[in-house]
Specification:
heterodimer, A: mainly alpha, about 0% strand, B: MetI-like fold, disordered N terminus
């Protein structure tokens, strides 16, 4: 075959493949978003209604309690999710910075073993961990409280946070803080004036991962929360399925509410996210 | 000057500072992971049932474990979980590699494509499950509606009810959610690869397959191991997906280890037995992670040596 024709053909094939790929990634999510604005009658219609006839914010009004029937306290779940995710992320970052600094800057006994232990603690499946936590937390009175869930999420996020932050501190030449210390800074001052500002974007990306993990977690939250005091959005989403018929439109509206903060955060920091994953992991 | 010798501060082996810095991390993990797992291990040697608190103090030794050895449902779920993980991780790696190669070739709109590719990473697993429960719904799902509109099928295909189709649907949802981890990391690897060795190999007469097999692939393998390690840290996220899509049913056809643990522990209140199962699932997860982590460490040493 003529090489020019062949290259042309290759380009067409790769565009078709890319298009198919983007369809598979986007269509399910966009369909859920579209459903969030449609009345349930249209979602259930047979034969299927492909072009929406009615678009409205009714489903959102309903789940936020502006309509007559308030079945699911979404504003409370939203507030719980925010408070729990933000607090656990902040604490996990502080602990992660301290631990990541130790791994990046000091040599000590059992270093590799401790690091491996840290990672292995993260692999315990949430549902397996939920069994003993459920028993212990109910004895400690931590079931259905925000602090109860916050502590759990801090522990879930610390290993990965340490891993990422360790990688970012390692990228900063040790000579910089050594020079600052020769000039009279203490270790503590050198950290805040040199290493922290330089690693800030990496720490931010670690924070995004921690936030997303807490925001999206279901297996543990579903067992450790009971009521509007502490239930998070993913657990609240399952409220819809306890009824006989599934309210697809209402569930889709709630799905949109869960995904918007996550998407917004990701868009803001997507460059750091990729750098965080690769540099933290490879060059570490 | 000697007083400030920072080298000694950093390099002293007997220094307590690193241990103090790591103390908060290990305290939290002790409270939330280590201590509960110890309690869980103890519970797995008792016939503990939530409705009869006294049973927590009855020691029955290994009976839960020996019962499990002869439990057909448990082994079916165990086998299904290993199969599920093997298929999902392999498909994710291959699809991720394909996507990364595809996008690395495209010059126009690459950043937009990469952003779209990251979408599934941001979805809560519970949302992915819900989304595909909706897509694969036999009555109103977009997939069946599309197949019927295109006259590719007459009746409603029961995606989430049929044994094989339900397993396929769940694996599809899992792959949809997690392939982007592989794709993004492998793409980062491909983009950071130096061009010279590839050019040199081409000049020496290598065909594209040989270039890929002997130059590209070895270079991006460390990136693949990072992706594998990150993935193996939370393979149990699949519990959320299965829980929403099928709940392990119908009739246990999609029951994985994790849904079986939840059913035994919470629905049937057999905490002792559920903890025994949980221990086996933990060992499975640790085995997966340990395997990839060793490979990652080796790959990192290899990369550092090359610097």
């Amino acid at each position: 075959m003529d090489p020019k024709l062949r290259r042309q053909l290759g380009r067409i094939v790769s565009w078709v493949l890319t298009f198919l790929l983007m369809m598979i990634i986007c269509v399910p999510g966009l369909w859920v978003v579209l459903t969030a604005f449609r009345p349930n009658a249209e979602v259930l219609a047979k034969p299927a209604v492909w072009v929406p006839q009615v678009l409205s914010l009714n489903n959102f009004a309903k789940i936020f309690g502006f309509a007559q029937e308030v079945a699911i306290p979404v504003p409370a779940y939203f507030a719980n999710s925010m408070i729990i995710a933000l607090t656990s992320t902040a604490i996990a970052l502080l602990i992660g910075m301290s631990g990541g600094y130790a791994f990046a800057r000091y040599r000590f006994r059992f270093k590799d073993g401790l690091f491996l232990g840290l990672m292995l603690s993260r692999t315990v499946p949430g549902i397996a961990l939920s069994l003993p936590l459920f028993m212990i937390w109910s004895r400690l009175g931590l079931i259905d409280t925000k602090p109860g869930l916050i502590i759990v999420y801090v522990a879930m996020n610390v290993p990965f946070t340490i891993w990422l932050i360790d990688g970012f501190f390692r990228q900063i030449p040790i000579e910089l803080s050594e020079a600052a210390m020769v000039d009279g800074c203490t270790r503590w001052q050198a950290f805040w004036r040199i290493e922290f500002p330089l690693a800030r974007s990496g720490i931010a990306s670690a924070g995004i991962f921690a936030f997303l993990t807490s925001w999206n977690e279901y297996a543990l939250a579903s067992q450790l929360t009971r009521s509007t005091y502490s239930k998070t959005l993913p657990v609240g989403l399952m409220d819809f399925t306890s009824q006989f018929t599934i309210d697809w439109a209402g569930m889709s509206a709630m799905a949109v509410i869960i995904i918007i903060p996550a998407l917004a955060l990701t868009f803001i920091v997507q460059k750091h996210l990729i750098a965080g994953l690769t540099f933290g992991g490879v060059k570490g | 000057m000697a007083r400030y010798s920072p080298k000694r501060l950093f390099r002293n082996r007997m220094n307590l500072v690193p241990f103090l810095l790591l103390l908060p991390a290990f305290m939290v993990l002790a409270l939330v992971v280590v201590f509960p797992l110890g309690f869980s291990l103890y519970t797995s040697f008792t016939p503990y049932r939530l409705i009869r608190p006294n049973t927590l103090h009855v020691w029955i030794g290994l009976r839960n474990y020996t019962d499990l050895m002869g439990n057909g449902d448990f082994w079916a779920a165990f086998g299904r979980t290993v199969l599920f993980l093997t298929i999902a991780l392999n498909v994710e790696f291959l699809a991720g590699l394909g996507i990364a190669l595809l996008i690395s070739r495209i010059t126009w709109g690459q950043r937009t494509l990469r952003t779209i590719m990251m979408f599934p990473m941001m979805f809560s697993p519970i949302l992915v499950g819900y989304q595909f429960k909706f897509v694969f719904n036999d009555n109103i799902g977009i997939l069946n509606n599309a197949l019927q509109a295109l006259h590719l099928s007459d009746g409603a295909i029961a995606w989430l009810v049929d044994r094989n189709l339900a397993m396929f649907s769940i694996i599809f949802a899992e792959v949809w959610m997690s392939t982007s981890v592989f794709a993004i990391l492998l793409l980062a690897g491909l983009l950071s690869m130096p061009r010279d060795p590839v050019e040199a190999a081409r000049v020496d007469g290598c065909n594209p397959w040989q270039v890929f097999r002997h130059i590209t692939l070895p270079y991006i393998m460390p990136f693949a191991y990072i992706a594998m390690t990150i993935r193996s840290l939370d393979v149990a996220r699949a519990y959320d997906i299965v829980h929403v899509m099928t709940g392990g049913g119908p009739a246990g056809r999609t029951e994985l280890l994790w849904t079986l643990i939840a059913r035994t522990g919470y629905n049937n209140a057999k905490m002792g037995m559920a903890n025994a199962m949980a221990y086996i699932s933990i060992l499975l997860s640790i085995a997966f992670t340990y395997f990839f982590f060793r490979k990652l460490i080796a790959a990192r040493k290899f990369m550092r040596g090359a610097d």
